Amino acid sequence: MAVPSLGCFAHTLQLVVHEGLMLQRSVSDELANSRKIVAHFKHSQLAQSRLEDLQREMQGSGTTSTPARLVQDVQTRWNSSFYMVKRLLTEKRALCAYAADYNLPATSSANEWGLLEKTVTVLEPFEELTRKISSATSTAADVVPTVAVLKRLLADENSTDSGIKTMKSTLLQAVNRRFSSIESESVYAVATLLDARYKDRFFTGGEAARMAKNLLKQEMERALAKASADKAGSRKPEPEPAEKVAHVDASSPPTTSKSSFSSLYDKILEEHDEPAQGTQAAVIQMQMYLKEPTMGELDSPFQYWADNHARFPLLAAVAVKFLSAPSTSVESGSLFSTASNIVDEKRNHLTAERAQMLNAYIPQKEPVIV
Predict the structure, then answer these.
(1) Using the 8-state DSSP alphabet, how is residue 204 labeled?
(2) From the CB of residue 263, how many other CB atoms can be counted at a distance below 10 Å?
(3) 339 φ, ψ to 5°?
């Protein structure tokens, strides 16, 4: 389809969080302490058993649920650190009670617990957006709106920002640095316009929206030219009529051929008529589409074009091309992981058909968050 390759948006978001927050000395030190605490319980069954006893005591005698285990993070994935800290905060009372009776490799003061709470508060929007763009239905159209929402969240100031203003400012700088040219990327810009949930509402300025519309118009003109070429190629040549003997009527005036000037005049008109009609059709369709209200956030853009391809045929042809581009490589990674669980060293002679049958029986899990 001649769509240029794109980087994984989830991976770039990972770099943003790492540069904007994880490299701060105070945060990185607290994360290191958190890893030591979690590793202590992961490596000692006795310590884990004692912690579970304390958790059950705090849950009350009427609760039969299994105590939640601590989560070990993977340093290359910021969201795993987010889940680790969030679980530590959930089990804070049990951990403090454990530290009162037993030794821990690291402990946290009240201020340090407060820093972890603020870190979770700042990272929660990133975690939510990462889940959204890592879903199986996410496309390149989700990137520009996601960046716009992130910038608005980090730029807005409110009364609850006490203690996290520096974190938000640092993250905003990282977002602006990493995604400075995201709206000028043709795939992201055109895909955003063609998603009926977003259209031109999420571009940061009028100039960016105009550039995106120009790119879309060019794609529509290419689609029109391709459709015209395909139609001309599929048209069967008409058989030539049999030659007839010319009958000259002496009473009729002789026919005169057009002058060279008139022929060139008509040729120039023909050259300019068809492109003008195509451009006009593209502009009219685009204006009608953009004037209509957007869809709901949970509605499907694919279903929209299935229902409206007859109304906007040129736009629908371009949408097939650009909305097929995923925003991340999460689904590709999940596909390879699933395949590696089916075809391994002990089952290396499976045919493609049999592997496909086995894949259908494997329960589908939530996408892996990068």
Answers:
(1) S
(2) 11
(3) -65, -35
- Per domain, the residue ranges of the chain are 9-138, 330-361
* pTM flag (> 0.70): yes
- The residue type of 327 is S
Measuring CA to CA, which residue among 212, 216, 158, 149 is closest to residue 179? 149
Residue 265 host element (H or E): helix 260-291
DSSP 8-state secondary structure symbol assigned to residue 182: G
85-104: pLDDT as tens digits: 999 999 999 999 999 999 99
CA distances from 136 to 25, 110, 133, 365 (A): 36, 41, 8, 11
Cα–Cα distance, 49 to 359 (Å, whole number) = 38
Query: Rg (Cα) of the chain, in Å, rounded?
Result: 31
pLDDT for 161 beyond 90:
no
Query: How many Cα neighbours within 13 Å face the side chain of 334?
Result: 17
How far CA 328 is from CA of 146, 224, 257, 331, 367, in Å, comes to 13, 30, 64, 7, 11
pLDDT of 175 over the 50 cut: yes
Nearest to 171 by CA among 25, 15, 30: 15
Report the pLDDT value the prediction gives residue 273, as an integer from 0 to 100: 46
Neighbouring CB atoms inside 10 A of 41's CB total 22
| Helix 313-322, helix 301-308: angle, nearest 10 | 150
Number of helices and strands in the chain (H, E) = 15, 0
* Contact of 143 with 9, CB cutoff 8 Å: yes
- In the structure encoding, which two tokens stand for residue 10, read together? 């989830």
CA distances from 340 to 195, 335, 344, 359 (A): 34, 9, 6, 11
Could you tell me if 339 and 362 are in contact, meaning their C-beta atoms sit under 8 angstroms apart? no
Count the Cβ atoms, other than its own, within 10 Å of residue 316: 19
What dihedral angle (degrees, nearest 10) is formed by the CA atoms of 303, 306, 312, 314?
110
